[in-house]
Amino acid sequence: MRRTKALLACSILPLFLFGCSDDDDDVVQEPTPEFANVRVVHAASDAPMVNVTANDAILNSLENVDYQVASSRFEVETGTYDIGVTGILPGENAEVLQADVTLEADMNYDVFAVGNVSDETLALLTVTRMETAVEAGNAQVQIVHAASMAPTVDIYVTAPDTDITAEQPLVTAEFTDSTDLIQVPAGDYQIRITPAGETTVVYDSGTVNLADGADLLIAATNNVGTGESPVTLLAADGDGSFKIWDKEAGAAIRVVHGISDAPAVDVIANNEIVLVDGIQFPRTTDYLSVAAGDYLIDVVADSDNSVVAIDDAELSLEVGMSYTAIANNTLAAPELDVLLDMPRSVATEAKVRIIHASPSAGNVDIYVTADGEIDAIDPAFADIAYDTGELVETGYVSLAEGDYVVTVTPTGTKTAAIETGVLSLVNGEIYTAIALDGAMEGDLPQLALLDGLAPPPPAFNADMTYNVSLSGAQEVPAVDTMSTATAVVEIDEDLPAFSVSVDVSGLTEVTGVHVHDGGIGMNGPVAFPLTDAGNGTYVLAETTISPSNLDALTSGEWYLNVHTTANPSGEVRGQIVPDTTAVVTFSLSGSQEVPAVDTMAMGSGYALFDTTNNNVSLVAVTTIDNATMAHIHTGFAGVNGPVLEALVESDETAGVWMTDGSLMLDEATATQLLSGGHYVNVHTAAFTGGEIRGQITPDNIEVYGIIADGLQEVPAVTTTASGAGAFTLNTSTGALSGSVTITGMTANMAHIHEGAAGVNGGVLLGLTDGSNGMWSVPANTTLTAEQMGVMADGGLYTNFHSDAFPSGEIRGQITLGFD
User: Fold this and answer.
1) What's the distance, Cα to Cα, between the start and end of the chain in Å?
2) Are the CB atoms for 434 and 448 separated by under 8 Å?
3) Cα–Cα distance between 766 and 752 in angstroms, integer?
4) Are strands 215-222 and 203-210 parallel, antiparallel or unpaired?
5) Angle at the Cα of 163 (from 160 to 168), degrees rounded to 5?
6) Whole-structure pTM value
7) Whole-number pLDDT of residue 17
8) Signal sequence: where (predicted)?
9) Do residues 336 and 327 touch, judged by C-beta distance below 8 A?
């Protein structure tokens, strides 16, 4: 074991004064001195750095000892000492702890500063044990609970990946408890900590190796680094100390956009991990949790990731550490500087840090005063340069709490380029300011204020509200469900930010609700999960998004999806679009072809129609992977018509056809589309005229299919005649149109009758005889609300009369849809 003797001046150790005498007349045989081993551990998380004294002299060079640092183990002559701990405070140091400690021979003393300054629980804890050799093949540990913010805990030390639910804890310890020395075979172990009596792990070391001969003091201390664990283990080996972080601690980094002439940017790690999406000058992100390790960082334009400002900047992040990455200089010569942050709060001081990242400012002087008067004083920091190699900063400066003004001037002048006004600084807070260029060329530099200086975020002020309807028909593929949901999406374009509230009270067994990234008719990944707020409501609180994400949101490229036990991929979905955009869904089948096609193929159609400019975008998702072409045609249900627009097949998924961007319609075409007067037709080699077809039907348009034959007559009629057709109903106006084409008979009249299947009824209206056996609904026909209700319930039928069968030779019930 390495030992360092503490050199304690004779003048301060009265116990040994006789050993310093200059009297040579009497030769006194000095007794052989005896020694104890001492180690000092700073484990008070909100205390400042300290000096440690014995009998008023610095003990073994223990000056400026920081939190979570253990000294080497050193020898001190036995005896009783006045141990003092002096806090290094702004202005004047002060003794914060004192204790008389008696040291005995061949004993080890670990002296901890524990507790908190803020709640006046600061104390000295001395852990004592006999000096014990480590047996060959073993490691030796002693564990101390020095985490003042942690409750009584169970500590498990097991082989890696052992199920602790079947294990007994090594020790149950409350704050300041310590174990005896424990010797275990050298090897790999896993240390886990849970609240006493529970098995929920709040700290997990992962695999740690206890080497042969290792003699370790392991102290649980308050975690002031990254991660969610309340504790970090501090391991001291006699020569020094090191931290054992929770295995999920990772690192933390925040990003500052400090290039005034650059657009919003994305920050991408290793060419695939988007760390930051669309940050604008001069904004700063919150800390982002990332895995520790080495990265290559790209800074690219948010609007076009092919425009690269910074390419493959090397970045190494250590576990437990926090960093600030500052993109700075100009767009023509961008720089990325990464600074190590020290975010530990100290209860006795305000920590202030100023960073020079303004290339246009040149060299500057920085004054820190109580009133802003700088004429008669020297700067606190003089001639601070902007350095493209490495940003210059003040470091963390400790100030007593109070009011201050920070003034920045060009070096050697008293002309303020930046003046903060009065800043009220509070002990325990951290304050960071970064000097950046002004927003416009020629503007004075400005300060980006972080941490305790950061202004409150601007209030969310929605300037757009979307009311979203969710249905199974919008799922891809469509889901057959009667359930629906509604949502309200509010958008603040200035921040930009948005919020969501979804009413799912009409569904059962909801397992999750998300905002997904995906356009109409396309599935995409989860972008934002919503939180169950109870009472059948899921919410996403006001959430800041990038400019590119704002564009995606307001362009209809995101959707809401409600997942249920019955439909894990989603039972109802709603495209997030303005209220002025209609979402249209429709089915495609062979039965809608004219004439009908016998095929197992099918599809689902999805369209967005912008009523402000008559733009339409459409996607058809089909089960046909060998289609030759697909089009939007002009024509109402039951009628074939010419091509309006060719669709293009997806490069990624066979059977998916879509408009090439959006299609702008003239007023007449748009009016017909909204009336149900267009359809999608998918052609194949086997069915060149179309294998499946789908009428494009807005919410107020219903299409009814008619198949007529003699068997539906009451009583049934034996005949080879048949008929097929479709009617289109506008439920907003009651307008009815359509036709039925009959073959194998000559009708002398035809009507729409009232009557359910199997029941005869009176005539509602007559059909008009056209050419080639086509009988049509008379122009300008409208139904009453009552008649529309009867029709929707299947209570109307078509009847075609002939000379041979005056009461009707063939009949066709008018049914919603084609199946």
Assistant:
1) 87
2) yes
3) 6
4) unpaired
5) 100
6) 0.74
7) 31
8) 1-21
9) yes
**pLDDT-derived band of residue 13, with 50, 70 and 90 as boundaries?**
very low
The DSSP bridge partners found for residue 390 are none
Lowest mean pLDDT among 31-35, 446-450, 649-653: 31-35
Whether the bond into 410 is cis, omega within 30 of 0: no
Handedness of CA 48, 54, 57, 62 (dihedral sign): negative
Contact present, 601 and 691 (Cβ < 8 Å): yes
Separation of alpha carbons 193 and 412, rounded Å: 57
What is the chain's mean pLDDT, rounded? 94
Stretch 610-628: mean pLDDT:
97
Residue 255 CA to residue 327 CA, distance in Å, equals 8
Cα separation of 528 and 533, whole Å?
A: 15
Backbone angles phi, psi at 281, to 5 degrees: -65, 135
Q: Which two tokens stand for residue 753?
A: 């009758």
Report the range of poorest mean pLDDT among 24-33, 63-72, 118-127, 290-299: 24-33
Cα 55 from Cα 33, distance rounded (Å): 18
- 791-819: b (≥16 Cβ within 10 Å) or e: bbeebbbbbbbbeebeebbbbbbbbeebe
Q: Is 18 helix (H, G, I), strand (E, B) or coil?
A: helix
Question: Which phi and psi (to 5°) does residue 10 adopt?
Answer: -55, -35
C-alpha triplet 131, 136, 142: angle, nearest 5°: 40
Distance CA 410, CA 359 (A): 12
Residue 608 near residue 637 (C-beta atoms within 8 A): no
8 Å CB contact between 359 and 386: yes
Say whether pLDDT at 549 is over 80.
yes
What confidence score (pLDDT) does residue 25 get? Answer: 52
Q: For 387-425, what is each residue's pLDDT tens digit?
A: 998 999 999 999 999 999 999 999 999 999 999 999 999
The helix/strand/coil state of 360 is helix
